[in-house]
Amino acid sequence: MDHLKARFYNHAALNVAESKESGTKIYDDLVMVELSVKGSKGESISYVATDEHKKNFPQAWAEYKGESFTGNSGTPLAVLGEHFTLARQMEMKGLGIYSVEDLAGINDVDAIKIREGLKAKHLANKYLEGQALAKQDVTIEQVADLQRRLAELEMQNELLAANQKQKPGRKPAVNDEVAQAIM
Q1: Do residue 153 and residue 79 come from a single domain?
Q2: What does the pLDDT look like over 77-106, one tens digit per residue?
Q3: Which residues on adjacent β-strands are paired with residue 99?
Q4: DSSP character for 76?
Q5: 127 and 58 in one domain?
Q6: DSSP conformation class of 24
Q7: Structure pTM?
């Protein structure tokens, strides 16, 4: 469902049965949901909103209900640099693309329909790859630190084991002096 954008809205539908019975037009209020593919232009379909729609698109539902709209989660488009001016960001938002993750996730067919869409999608993917590598580097540093600490502990353990094997009155070994210096 990440490739879809939803917009809930009110619609007045003619109630044919009640209109016929009363002799005047009677309308029922309906909550509708308009679904479109992020990045597509003007291609959408509307349904009477169900609980399933509300569950699948909680952010759009909250916006419809007037609850605080925190914006789409994800990395703001502005991080993509000077190519993404405020006007460009507004164009993307008009297509349901609110974040770098949204932009990277659109399919190539829809990207082609957007002005410089393939270039923008490529830029978004490169940004996300860079972020993933940065996170991975931190993890590699942490692993290296843990390996260093493990080696120190193993050396200390060996030194302690060597100390326990000594007989009373025996001159301390060189390893014992090293162990004393470490502790």
Answers
A1: yes
A2: 888 887 777 788 888 887 888 888 988 888
A3: 76
A4: B
A5: no
A6: S
A7: 0.43
**Secondary structure string (H, E, C) spanning 112-158:** HHCCCHHHHHHHHHHHHHHHHHHHHHHHHHHHHHHHHHHHHHHHHHH
- Asked whether residue 168 is assigned to any structural domain, the reply reads no
Tokens of 159: 């030194």
Residue 68 has what pLDDT? 44
Residue 112 located in a structural domain: yes
Containing domain of residue 45, as a range? 1-70
Q: What total of structural domains would you count in the chain?
A: 2
Distances (CA, A) of 114 to 7, 53, 74, 128: 20, 27, 21, 20
Query: What is each CA distance from 125 to 79, 82, 88, 103, 154, in whole angstroms?
Result: 12, 17, 17, 8, 43
The one-letter code for the residue type at 114 is I
5 lies in the same domain as 46: yes
Q: Is 170 within a domain?
A: no
Would 164 be classed as within a structural domain?
A: no
DSSP 74: S
